[in-house]
Amino acid sequence: MLAAGTARVDITPPIGIAHAGWGAQSHEGAEGIDMPLTITALVIETDGNTDPAARIAVLDIDTCMLVESYDRNIREAVTSATGIPAGSQRVSYTHTHSGPIEGLSWIVQGSEMVEPWFRSMAPASAEAVQQAISNMTPVRVDTGSGHCEININRRPVSHDGSVFTGRNPGGFVDHEVLVTAFDDLDGNPVATLVNYACHPTIMGPENRLITPDYPGPTRETVESIVGGTCLFLQGAAGNQGPIDGFTGDTSVYRKLGKQLGIEAARIRLNIDPVPREEKLEKILASGADLGIYSFRQVGESDSTLGIIEATASLPIKEMPPESEVQANFDRISANLRSVRSSGGSVEQIKQAAFPAKRETLLLRHTQTFGSGGGKRDIPIQVIRIGNTALVAIPVEPFAEIGTAVKARSPADWTLFSGYSNGYYGYLPMAYAYPEGGYEVGPTAPFEAGAAEQMIEDCLAAIQKLWN
Known about the structure:
The chain has helices at 68-82, 114-134, 215-226, 250-269, 322-341, 346-369, 399-408, 432-435, 450-466; strands at residues 2-10, 32-33, 38-46, 56-61, 89-93, 137-147, 151-153, 176-184, 189-196, 209-210, 229-234, 240-242, 276-284, 290-297, 305-315, 375-385, 388-392, 396-397, 413-417, 426-427. By secondary structure, the protein is α/β, with parallel strands linked by helices. The protein folds into 3 domains: 2-272, no CATH class; 275-302, no CATH class; 322-369. 49% of the residues are buried.
């Protein structure tokens, strides 16, 4: 038997904080809050084994990304507070683009609030995990799947043959919704995991409000229909975007999030983690003869709990020296400051801002990988909860990576996610490199072929844990 507990902590940042990260935005600070940002924790243990070293913690955090330093701070705080080892924690982020952006910002207004906010996630995460431990109860677990079409391939081709970020109805898309149910021994919902692949970019450059984008309404909808606590685990969304996005209209993300939440709730309500056997008890004479059935429990759900850490050795692109990239970033940022200080128009600010955004991404990669070349070990984490595998990698993976791993996994169910345990950029499939586009430019530090290698290494890690 397994035991699990959940908790949620509010981490909504202050109004005025440097907001979002769109190269095309003209504002700097957040002007309001449409929905709160939160950290939701799930702690799992084998029932009766309260050794902290045997527990696993899963965190669902409303932020765009968490680089290695912030990820490490969170783990250290959770370990210090609860004893759960750093390697037994999954630190996932929803990837909302409607909150503060970490690190090398070209935004000045409110930027002094950004680092303190990110650092506040460590004690907040520890608090959430501590509360989840205090709420532990015996549970049974199982998973189900469904289908939702709020996402679409986001790599169409323009009239001049270049790839842009939009809607590509003919491109590869993964509409699968995977839902893992945790029920107490009376059948009451304790937790629900929702795994889906779609960039939370419904709210775009014109949005000036803090929001969790669609994952917020998804969680809210599941909890209102099913009960218990819902965690959202972002999928392989590197080339998956919303069917309606880049807007300033908050009703759009609320509507699409509710659509996904309704489908997740439908799946959840059809999951029964208890193995049952149907038996015809009697035929009751009535206007029509009525079959009276019982559904007897015949065993227990799978209660295996385990975790494994592995790596994928991936080829890294050759990149310019960090000093050269830094000099370019400083020059571009100075030009943006000049345009702003001289009272430039909204269009002039946008034209000066988007090069800063792109150079920021390249600078991040040179700081992580140096001038590139060779290979780098990228972490893979697999958690086994009964018959279900939770796979997590610290990149923005194309959907084909997720579907390949799910299709070939030895687990009954496999929830595949990027956006977890750090951040190393985009991981496109090899076919995308000659096509070009945002996902294979400065956002991707990996050479072609890295995604295909990641698929094999993820499958090897799952197989090792299942063996």
